[in-house]
UniProtKB/TrEMBL annotation:
Its main location: nucleus. GO terms for cellular component: nucleus. Multifunctional protein that is involved in the regulation of many processes. SMART domains: LRRcap. Belongs to the ANP32 family. The lineage of its organism: Eukaryota, Metazoa, Chordata, Craniata, Vertebrata. Residues 128-146 form the U2A'/phosphoprotein 32 family A C-terminal domain. Keywords: Leucine-rich repeat, Nucleus, Repeat. This is Acidic leucine-rich nuclear phosphoprotein 32 family member. Residues 157-232 have a biased composition (Acidic residues). Residues 149-250 are annotated as: Disordered. PANTHER family: ACIDIC LEUCINE-RICH NUCLEAR PHOSPHOPROTEIN 32, ACIDIC LEUCINE-RICH NUCLEAR PHOSPHOPROTEIN 32 FAMILY MEMBER A.
Amino acid sequence: MDMKKRIYLELRNRTPSDVKELVLDNCRSNEGKIEGLTDEFEELEFLSTINVGLTSVANLPKLNKLKKLELSDNRISGGLEVLAEKCPNLTHLNLSGNKIKDLSTIEPLKKLESLKSLDLFNCEVTNLNDYRENVFKLLPQLTYLDGYDKEDKEAPDSDAEAYPEGLDDEDEDDDEEEEYDEDAAPGDDDEEEEGDEEEEEGEEEEEDDISGEEEEEELNDGEVEDEDDYEEERGQKRKRELDEEGEEDD
């Protein structure tokens, strides 16, 4: 997808002046240049153009409110003086993975007085002797270089990352839906557990009923046996009495 079409899609029926964040990562630039961006994006604060094949930033429009610019994994080797003119209020600049070989290439960045964080990972310039010390001398306004300050203390996440607010609306909506589903699930489990408990109680009551009936049957059987024994004993006693009377008559 080319950059112009990507910008059109990212607008989502908004006007350029309504956009504060614009992510154009992995689309195609035309002849290595930025295209489709205009001065109408006057409220833009964050722009990301990672891996779009840029060789130049010359076509950047005037973006006075731009604070964070992602240019990593492109083929930029110079022409950075444009940034001070087009984006004078930049605070974070990521040039990781570009064709920057020497300190003179980044020297124009000294005009970016608000620049606080600069990333040059995987650029040849990082292989120079005393690279970090020389960059901090060249750009005294910097607080963080490649995520660390002069004392090698790591930057907080908000400074180390080029765009802490990089989530778009769709991602936020997806997260909300997932949270909703997660919240709903325990309720279903509770209902199932309650149903299982009721079923177990019913089974226990049935067992009690059955055991009660068995005990009653045993008692009844016992009573019948006792009654038979009693009748038998009475019969034997009556027979003895008759025998005794017969003997007396004789």
